[in-house]
Write a structure and sequence with these properties.
Two copies of one chain form a homodimer.
Chain A: H1 4-22, E1 27-28, H2 30-37, H3 41-49, E2 61-62, H4 63-73, E3 80-85, H5 89-96, H6 98-102, E4 105-112, E5 121-122, E6 125-129, H7 133-140, E7 144-147, H8 151-163, E8 168-171, E9 184-187, H9 190-207
Parallel strand pairs in A: 3-4, 3-7, 4-6, 7-8, 8-9
Antiparallel strand pairs in A: 1-2, 5-6
Chain lengths: ~210, ~210
């Protein structure tokens, strides 16, 4: 079992590897892999040992091979169907976001409850009603559900996604979702990030007052 | 000096306090404040002691007073002007995002380099060219710069924002920005979140194979 903290660093190693591959480098050191991750080289070697990848002392890791190993470990060598719930500004942007498809996350379904949005076509997909979720789930077999709704309905949407068989949720709504064991939730909370920056500004202003 | 980890938890306490205030509760326990933050009650009390707020044994904290203290500490009792650079799908959504203004983050400027976007009006603001940034900065005094550009230009944009006097950056572009000491950067990286969910799906698929 790979520790969660290691999983969270694999995408960062992957990014460095992609840069190295783009620059036609064939080997890479654990020191170099450590740079973006905010860890030391020993931690990188430990992380990669979970993948069975040990590198060669004095040479480092083979870029292409490690790229493949990490991609496979992260499940990036296959496509994951995505359903987005909530087509306000953010959901709309996510539906149009080219970055999803490019990374193997194929948006296959869009869901809202607003009658003015249901039936609308966004990025070639027709928005359907939340009540259609069970039918959509059996048709589209979504792996990942994206919640871009207002906070008060996010838990209900999460419950419906889980009931429809979704086991990974990316939540943009503020607040904490409770989900059954075996369902993964990742959270992107813009207001918390903004508040942390606000604190920084506040402190700066106080220093210059 | 409040530790960074404490700063990162203050917005979470704030959210719990807002819920308590909305429910007309007048006092709140450190246990309750700990729930959302994934910490224990002792850590909450330690965090809040940095604000000089000690609560009352057996009673807890006064909701309204703690709300005010944390809001002030986070700089949320004043408005911070925000400039968004990069008006693709994501930047567009951010420019239209009502959540910014509601939280005291006033979008005052929009910037792009694409001639088809410069001059466009989004949410009542006309998009200006990146070269206008120094002029805009002296007019608008932005505190926070939001980078929603493609990754390859993000560092250049960060450099220009810093040169224009911006000291807080919210970065949506993949990759790491290097900024001078005194400039705060927070990062929202959708692709890393998606890759972590992908790993979870991959592991689930392997278990059910």
């Amino acid at each position: 079992m790979i520790p969660e903290a290691t999983v969270a660093r694999l995408p960062i190693y992957l990014r460095t590897l992609m840069e190295a591959a783009a620059a036609h480098e064939t080997t890479i050191s654990s020191e170099r892999l450590a740079e973006l991750g905010g860890v030391n080289a020993a931690k990188v070697r430990k992380d990669l040992s979970y993948l069975g990848s040990l590198g060669t002392r004095g040479v480092g890791y083979d870029v292409e091979f490690l790229l493949f190993e990490i991609s496979r470990e992260l499940g990036l060598t296959r496509d994951w169907p995505v359903i987005i719930v909530g087509l306000g500004n953010l959901g709309h942007a996510l539906a149009n976001y080219k970055g999803f498809g490019a990374r193997g996350f194929q948006v296959v379904g869009l869901v809202d409850v607003d009658p003015t949005r249901v039936g609308e076509e966004i990025a070639g997909i027709t928005v359907r009603h939340l009540d259609d979720l069970p039918v959509m789930a059996s048709e589209l077999r979504p792996a990942i559900g994206v919640i871009a709704t207002p906070a008060p309905v996010a838990q209900d949407v999460a419950d419906r996604l889980v009931a429809a068989g979704v086991t990974s949720i990316l939540n943009f709504a503020p607040g904490v979702l409770s989900v059954p064991k075996g369902v993964a939730v990742r959270k992107v909370d813009l207001s918390i990030e903004l508040q942390i920056l606000s604190f920084h500004q506040q402190r700066q202003a106080a220093q210059h007052a």
